[in-house]
Amino acid sequence: MEYSIGVDIGGTKILAGIVSRGGEVLYKQKVPTPKMGRNDILQELKELIENLTQWASLNDITLQGIGIGTAGQVNPFEGKILSGTANINNWGDIYLQQEVNSYSDLPVYVDNDVNVLTLAEAELGAAKGYHEVLCLALGTGVGGGIISKGELLRGAWGGAAELGHMTINFDGEQCNCGFRGCLETYASGPWIAKRMNDLRNAVKGNKEAVVSLTSEEVFRFYHLGDPFATKVVQTMIRGLATGVVNLIHIFNPQIVVLGGGVMYDGQWIIDLVKQEIQSLGIRTLVDDVKIELSNLSNDSGLIGAALQTWVNGR
Ligand SMILES: [Zn+2]
Question: How far is the CA of 165 from the centre of ligand 1 (A)?
C-alpha cells in the first residue's frame, strides 16, 4: 500500500494525517489554526509533519509525499501561497513547498482547498469514474474545482476555477471580491442568512430588534413554510441554477457535484436545482448532466490533499 501525509489548513483548524492511496486515514492530528497567522502556522505545520513522519517510521510505513491543501490563492507549480483569505491572518506570499522542504526531503505538493476537495471527489467520491467534473463547495464562500480530461484545470498559474466569483447578475449586490452579483452572493451561507435578515428587518423596520439567523436556520424555517425563508431559498435556487447552467454551457461536464457546509443534508437543494435547470439553457448540454450531492466526509480536505502525491501533483 502507498501512503502520504495530507494537511488541510482552514480558517479554524489544521488537520493533518497519514492517508493511503485508497483514501484511508491511518492516523491524524488536529490543532486550532494559530490566530497570529504565518510564523505560528508554519511552526505548527512543522511540528505536525515531524510528528506524523515519526509515527510513520515507528509503524514501518514508507511515506511518498506531503500534500497540503489551504484556503487562499495558490500557485501549485511553485508551491506558493499568493494571497490568503480573510479567515487566516497574514497568510500570503509564502513559498510553502520550500518551507516544508527545509525540514523534510519528501516531495511536497500545495494547492487550494477546493481543488484538493475536487480531487477527492473525483478519485473517491460522487464523481468517481468521471473525467469531466465540476465541483462547487458552498460554505462561508463558494469555491470551485474543475476536472477536464481527468486532470484539474489549472489556468496560467493555477488560479482557474474561481467559480463562486462568476457574476450572474451585473446589477447584483457587491461581493467581497469587488465584483457584483457573484454566485457567492446567492449561494454562500452568510449571504443566504443576510437575505433572510434583510427581509425580516425591512418588515420590522428596526434592525436592532431582529436576531440574526444562520443559513441552517433559514433552511429550517423554509421547511416549516415560513414565507421569508421560502423567498430566500427561491432566490438561492435561481442563483445557483443560473450559475450551474452557465458552467455547463462552458465546460460540458458529465457531472456537477455540490458540497460544502450549506449542502449538508442538501439532497432537497439538489432536487430543486435540477427542477430549475429543466427550464434553463441549451437542452443538448443541460439534459444529460448529473447533478449530485457530495458524499465526502470531514476528512476529505485532508484526504484530497494527500492524493496530490499520486494524482495531478503540480
Ligand atoms: Zn465575488
Answer: 4
Range of the domain at 52: 3-120+298-307
pLDDT for the residue 314: 46
Total number of domains constituting the chain: 2
Interval between CA 183 and ligand 1 midpoint (Å): 7
Give the separation between CA 30 and CA 181, rounded to whole angstroms.
Answer: 36
> Which of the residues 40, 113, 171, 271 is marked catalytic?
113
Summarize pLDDT for 108-159 with one digit per residue, the tens. 999 999 999 999 999 999 999 999 999 999 998 999 999 999 999 999 999 9
* Nearest-angstrom CA–CA distance, 140 and 116: 17
226 in catalytic set: no
Q: Which amino acid is at 105?
A: D
Considering the domain architecture, whether residues 174 and 288 belong to the same structural domain is answered as: yes
| In a shared domain, residues 275 and 166 | yes
The helix/strand/coil state of 198 is: helix
33 and 172 fall within a common domain? no
Residue 263 scores a pLDDT above 70: yes
